[in-house]
Design a protein that fits this description.
Blueprint (H helix, E strand, L loop, with lengths): L2 H22 L4 H30 L12
Helix pairs in contact: 1-2
Length: 70
């Protein structure tokens, strides 16, 4: 599973969470906007954390140097 597939999964989770918040917590336009902003921010932050960790493991900055005995 690569970067693009997991990005699609995060987008789907964000859309589903946004729809569920709109359906379950309908308390007015101002509150709905606040909840939607929180859901989008949380989804983007979780995706960015996952992407940074994934890309850091894909190409590490420090390359281990193996000795001849290993």
């Amino acid at each position: 599973m690569g970067l693009s597939m997991t990005t699609i999964i995060f987008v789907v989770v964000g859309v589903v969470a946004s729809v569920l918040v709109r359906l379950c917590c309908n308390r007015g336009p101002s509150t709905n906007l606040f909840h939607l902003t929180l859901i989008i921010t949380a989804t983007v932050c979780c995706w960015m954390m996952w992407a940074i960790v994934y890309l850091a493991q894909l190409k590490p900055l420090l390359v281990p140097i193996l000795s001849e005995g290993e």
